[in-house]
Amino acid sequence: MTRLSVFIASSIDGYIATLDDKLDWLDAAAVPGEDYGYEPFISTVDALAMGRGTYDFISHIDPLPFGDRKVFVFTHNPPQPREGVIFWQISPREALAQWEEMGIRHVYVDGGQVISSFLAEGLVDDMVLTKVPVTLGEGRPLFHPIPLCRGLGADRRDQLAQWHGQPDVLARVSAFLVRAAPEGIQRSPRIVPAMTFHR
After folding, report:
1. What dihedral do alpha carbons 108, 113, 116, 120 form, nearest 10°?
2. pLDDT tens across 158-176, in order?
3. Under 8 Å CB-to-CB from 3, ≥6 apart: which residues?
4. pTM of the full predicted structure?
5. Quick check: helix, strand or coil at residue 28?
């Protein structure tokens, strides 16, 4: 089974970038040399999924900073082909089915619109959200409106697993999500650790 994870930072008021797609505010808040758990996380990842906006933000980097991991970009307007990057116009469930056929075990889901699309389908397994002590007032939202569907709401068990204080007063929330099972398949409930505080 392919595991889908979110690992992302947002401002206190829920934005992941300014309206002109800048991340200066995030860089200014970070402690130099501190990766806030990114390297241990990315070391477990086999592939990345993102939207066109996120891809455009990093497309000038050559090579992309993900090693030999495949990058899947969800877009209705694909740019020029690029080695190691696959441009898709398929649904989250179709993507998950293809990843499982490919034998991809762990996918890093990134970018507000793509994250919201996978959450709307109940497909995200776990999420690490770092809250940065900055308010932007406006910008690119982390979460987009999503419909209530099977696997969300009363049938979903979103569990707050951990709340960690990070260097320079950033806070990180880890949540384990119980993915909605296909019809006729039962999944064992996950054991989620109690909420912990670290100072």
Report:
1. -110
2. 544 554 555 554 555 555 5
3. 105, 106, 107, 125, 126
4. 0.77
5. helix
